[in-house]
Amino acid sequence: MPIKLPTDFPAKSVLETEDIFAIEEKRAKQQDIRPLRLLILNLMPNKIDTEIQLLRLISQSPLQIDVDFLKLVSHNHKNVSQSHLAKFYLSFADIQNENYDGLIITGAPIEKLPFEEVDYWEELLQVMAWSQLHTTSVIHICWGAQAGLYYHYGIEKIQYDEKLFGVYPQRLRINHRLFRGFDDVFMGPQSRYTGINEHQIREDVLQIVASNEEIGATILISTDDHNIFLLGHFEYDTDSLKREFLRDQSAGLATKLPVNYFEDSSMEKVTNCWRGNAHLLYHNWLNDVYQVTPYHLEDIPKMNGK
Q1: What is the pLDDT of residue 23?
Q2: Which of 34, 95, 120, 205 sees the fewest Cβ atoms within 10 Å?
Q3: pTM of the predicted structure, to 2 decimals
Q4: Structural domain boundaries enclosing 156
């Protein structure tokens, strides 16, 4: 079943050209099922690109999905129109008494800043605390994963000497239902200046699901399965790393070519080797959330034991 989106939502026209179907609100209300309710906290500067990337992945489920987007009002969003935010994004005050099947917290290009120096840190803490009671499952992406690991489990980030940048093989370390159907070794994009202090991981609360010998843990999940931490970017488009590289070059940064990415020195040809993994992961996640969440969303706090 398709995603329900407002008729004039910008991503809708792009997804329709890719034969990804989004149902209009009027028709969706006539269907006698309970759709999944998802909330996306979009911290990325180019919000419309990220909206398209994530909606593309979650749209492949046979379930109808209602999606809300969340903004942090303590931050001045400079790379998106205020009319877009006002029309399509909610504030924490709008959703703090609501329950959702799932939440996605995106990355943000602020890895080098100490967490406490991020201007919206206190508001983000509110959202992460709320998520443990009011959602069935939370996916944290890249910096969002590092922030979540720090807040929930006290795991500090570590600064790299240079940007970790490219497409890396990752090996599954445990069998987990969210990675059902994955190959033992799979590829995924990484783009970050920081990692995590793995010595601070407590096995009684966190499990490393996938890792790379060179760069360490790449995917972690809490032992209660509520919190998922993706240190990479499965949602990236084929040309996302290329655009990041050119942007860094224009800014005078010493970013090296992304590893395992360009097929030759012309930087023209890229083979996407993570798209299938990305769709499978989000399909598995949505199916899992659908199976676990109570039919009545008001029962989620009881399910979470609060």
Answers
A1: 55
A2: 205
A3: 0.89
A4: 3-303
Can you read off the two tokens belonging to residue 51?
């909206």
Domain containing residue 135: CATH number: 3.40.50.880
* Token output for 93: 């005050």
Residues carrying an active site annotation: 142, 233, 235
56 belongs to an annotated ligand binding site: no
With 70 as the cut, is the pLDDT of residue 161 above it? Answer: yes
Instruction: Say whether 247 counts as a known binding-site residue.
Output: yes
Tell me the three state secondary structure of residue 265. coil
pLDDT in tens, 55-111: 999 988 888 899 999 999 988 877 777 888 889 999 999 999 999 999 999 999 999
Residues 232-278: tens digit of each pLDDT: 999 999 999 999 999 999 999 999 999 999 998 889 899 999 999 99
Reduce the DSSP state of residue 232 to 3 states and report it.
coil
Number of domains in the chain: 1
Listed in sequence order, the DSSP H helices in the chain are 10-17, 25-28, 47-58, 82-88, 92-95, 121-134, 143-153, 240-250, 275-292, 300-303
Residue whose structure tokens are 């205020």: 82
List all residues 6 or more positions away from 187 whose beta carbon is below 8 Å from its beta carbon.
Answer: 167, 168, 169, 170, 260, 273, 274, 277
Residue with tokens 């959202």: 127
Three-class SS of residue 34? coil
Query: Cα(20)–Cα(1) distance, rounded to whole angstroms?
Result: 11
pLDDT computed for residue 1 by the predictor: 46
